Amino acid sequence: MTTKISRNTYIYLQKCILFHTRTNFVKHFLSPLKGRVLDVGNLGDGGVTIEIRKIVEASGGEYTGLDVNENLAKEMNLKNQYFGDLHDLSGVIESGTFDVVYIGEVIEHSWHPGQMISECARILKEGGTLIMDTPNVYDLKNVLNVFFQKKNTMGDVQELTLEESIDNFKAYRTVQKAIESQPEHKIFYSPASLRQLLNMHGFAVEQIAYIDKATRWWHKLFVKLVPTSAQKIGVVARKKSDVIKIFTEKQFGDPV
Q1: Using one digit for the tens of pLDDT, what is the confidence trace for 111-144?
Q2: Which of 23, 44, 70, 198 has most Cβ atoms within 10 angstroms of its Cβ?
Q3: Pairwise CA distance, residues 154 & 136, whole Å
Q4: Sign of torsion, CA 75 78 82 85?
Q5: Which long-range contacts (CB under 8 A, 24 or more apart) does 117-120 make?
Q6: pTM of the predicted model, to two decimals?
Q7: Which are the contacts of 203, defined by CB distance < 8 A and separation ≥ 6?
């Protein structure tokens, strides 16, 4: 029997919120939440860009970090720090461990995002929250480059792309002991593709936001007028084990 889905083909973005920094986006949605929080990709290249730990602990939560970079994790010697790959954390993190998972600018570095989202669903408790942000495929700069300058880029460094093609950074990690472990962008997302990805792997979308990182006045003004042109997309989603309800019940982006 085919399940009847009354949802519209389009995702409507009129109720998206615009933030002017990633910190404001994360603080807005993370601060009200309690419990155990996992910060994925928290080490970056060794420099802290968002103080997730401070946000979590200020609201009475328990902070834990996860990063694929074992070299850097050992070097920094942090407490409550997991080492592992979000594609497969079996043997690292037990199912239903966390109340909240935050993935900041991580998913665009994977060719297999569905595996990442599935692992988030596994390690979250039922009803747990996934917060994520990633580059916007419709970023104004990208659109102008394609439409008017007839050029396009993933922002990658060809030498690193070659390293990944040869041995998936094995020599880069073990021989060179380099800091970056997965530095290259693979896929850029739109709100619709993110919602589809999340729905397919056990999440209902509760909010979509845009994050402005423009530095020039005219760019900031344009993003203020057209938030969907901002550089980053932010998403808040809720884990639901009943996939039929995810596709049949109302969620963010559906017409009112």
Answers
A1: 999 999 999 999 999 999 999 999 999 999 999 9
A2: 198
A3: 12
A4: negative
A5: 117/197, 117/198, 117/200, 117/201, 117/202, 117/203, 118/201, 118/202, 119/86, 119/87, 119/88, 119/89, 120/86, 120/201, 120/203, 120/239
A6: 0.91
A7: 117, 120, 121, 130, 237, 238, 239, 240, 246
Q: What is the CA radius of gyration of the chain?
A: 19
Map residue 209 onto helix, strand or coil: strand
Name beta bridge partners: 103: 40, 132
Tracing tokens 């203020």 back to the chain, one arrives at 224
DSSP annotation of 60: T
Tokens 């497969």 sit on residue: 88
Please answer whether residues 232 and 208 qualify as being in contact, where contact means their C-beta atoms are separated by less than 8 angstroms: no
Q: Which residue has the tokens 């472990």?
A: 181
**Residue 89 structure tokens:** 């954390």
Q: What is the pLDDT of residues 159-184, one digit of tens each?
A: 778 877 887 777 776 766 665 556 67
* Residue 239 per-residue DSSP state: E
Integer CA distances (angstroms), 213 to 22, 40, 90, 182, 220, in order: 8, 21, 36, 22, 8
User: Rounded to 5 degrees, what are φ and ψ at 174?
Assistant: -90, -35
Provide the pairing of β-strand 232-239 with 124-135.
antiparallel
Instruction: Please say whether the beta carbons of 249 and 231 come within 8 A.
Output: no
pLDDT of residue 176: 65
Q: Sketch out the chain's domains with CATH numbers.
A: 17-240 (3.40.50.150)
